[in-house]
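Can't paste images in this forum, so I'm doing it all in text. The chain is below; anyone willing to post the predicted structure tokens underneath?
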Amino acid sequence: MEKNLKNLYIHQKATAEAHLWARSPGVLTHLENILYGAGQRVCLKAGRIHRAEKILLEDKLYFLKIFYVKNLAKLLFKYPLKYRPPFKAVFNALLVSERGFPVILPLGFFIFKNPYRQKAWGGLLSPYYLEFETLPALWDKARQERNLFESLMQDILKLLQKLHEAGLYIRDTKVNNFLVRPGEEPLLFDLDQVKFFRRPLPQKLRLKNYQVLRRTLRRQGIPEEWLKVWFEKLL
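Text version of the structure:
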């Protein structure tokens, strides 16, 4: 599997600050320029663990995700490359994609040479989908139109149940981690926390996924009586 990853991200470069991998020479150049501050940037999310930015560079739209070091004490130990969050996220995305699931595959990624100084492991550069910007309005509409809500729920649960049967456990199944697109299968992203099992998932893990999904749908303002219809038979 690591061989498949290396065959996909064949363009590499080492700068003073980081090791870079990309699927094309153009992306590799853009990734390096972005790390040095190029592009028009909009911060989408800034938290303790992650930072997400929308970047416009030479008419190309990108989604940049940076993984912060949550616990600096971890840096006292040598972390092999494959255990660092950006590498794990790319590895997981490729593996899930090769199992036939719809995934937003990163165009490139980078690992900082000195995560202690950067306070970050590195990050991913992915294509930016304009549907990211329409998600809030879509769920706002779904709060008011039950038929739309039913359609979105059917798409999400159908995909989630396929993942369960394939033995894939995505830890964070909050609703905004599914890029829902009416009439199309939802896209998966943020796959840095995935566990792979040889058999279909046990009921305990399935329930955890459903509980997270239900909790985040409540935060979207979906009426409880609508949720009850779907989740009573699942939980």
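The two ends are 35 Å apart (CA to CA). The first strand starts at residue 11 and ends at 14.
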